[in-house]
Backbone:
């Protein structure tokens, strides 16, 4: 083998080694970037990109929109406080529209000047102490206290009612959330049956006692609640209340973990792989009273 031939033969080998080195370096860079960009996102959730993010969805007529578990949980509290006070669904709609605009339904510990919480209420303006305002139940209650003092709030434009309470520098901003507020309020107050569905890949679960306390807080003694080995069986006074119990509980999915919900002849079963829909049961042996809700907890 001549010296010249050896030199010619070594060039392709050297180029191959360089190419492999470049490929390895690029893969390391890409992997590092992926870790940086995804650090802290969906921790503990399945890595499969085909699995949807955790969320709850409301469907009402032409409207379909979703919330994160945090937003849905806060929406449940806002609507629950309106039910606890015996207010009409319109009050819950106005409150949801307001919180959506003010905080995107997040319990923020910051805001413009001293504004805080779901409704960005200001301690300096008499809404309460910072600790009180950061309690979603308290904040929702203070909003309703102010709303019912607004003249003709039950018939006036929803955005205008929100502005009458908030006195925002952007009075028309509430209007963009009206359809969403109506859909969620209608579902969570039970007027839209089978209007909420959720997907959750992680959650605490096992919250039968806590969920019982929530339902008693909202409906006081109007429900009959029995804890079972698998969850809760609730008997309501009417079908609308039964649907409100079911869907308000579903909106708190991240806190309590719910494997299935049944109202009358409708069954919802949680799936970690897709947003499950409600099924209408045909088997008479599986159908329960229209005023009864069976919740199976994880």
Residues:
């Amino acid at each position: 083998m001549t010296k010249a031939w050896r030199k010619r033969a070594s060039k392709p080998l050297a180029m191959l080694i360089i190419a492999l080195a470049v490929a390895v370096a690029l893969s390391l860079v890409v992997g590092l970037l992926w870790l940086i960009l995804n650090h802290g996102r969906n921790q503990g959730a399945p890595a499969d990109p085909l699995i949807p993010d955790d969320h709850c969805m409301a469907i009402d007529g032409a409207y379909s929109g979703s919330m994160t578990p945090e937003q849905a949980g806060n929406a449940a509290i806002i609507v629950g406080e309106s039910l606890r006070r015996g207010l009409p669904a319109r009050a819950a709609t106005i409150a949801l529209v307001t919180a959506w605009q003010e905080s995107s339904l997040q319990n923020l510990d910051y805001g413009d000047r001293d504004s805080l919480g779901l409704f960005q209420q200001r301690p300096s303006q008499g809404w309460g102490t910072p600790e009180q305002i950061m309690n979603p139940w308290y904040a929702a209650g203070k909003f309703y206290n102010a709303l019912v003092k607004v003249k003709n709030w039950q018939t006036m434009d929803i955005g205008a009612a929100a502005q009458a309470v908030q006195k925002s520098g952007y009075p028309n901003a509430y209007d963009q959330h009206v359809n969403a507020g109506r859909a969620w309020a209608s579902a969570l107050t039970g007027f839209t049956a089978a209007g909420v569905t959720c997907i959750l890949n992680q959650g605490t679960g096992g919250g039968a006692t806590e969920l019982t306390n929530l339902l008693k807080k909202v409906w006081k003694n109007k429900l009959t609640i029995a804890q079972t080995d698998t969850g809760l069986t609730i008997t309501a006074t009417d079908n609308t209340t039964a649907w409100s119990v079911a869907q308000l509980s579903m909106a708190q999915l991240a806190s309590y973990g719910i494997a299935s919900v049944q109202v009358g002849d409708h069954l919802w079963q949680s799936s970690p792989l897709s947003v499950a829909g409600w099924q209408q049961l045909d088997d008479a042996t599986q159908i329960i009273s229209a005023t009864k809700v069976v919740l199976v907890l994880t």
In short: DSSP finds ten helices and nine strands in the chain. Confidence is low (pLDDT under 50) at residues 1-9, 27-49. The beta strands are 55-60, 63-67, 196-199, 224-227, 231-235, 258-263, 266-269, 279-280, 292-297.
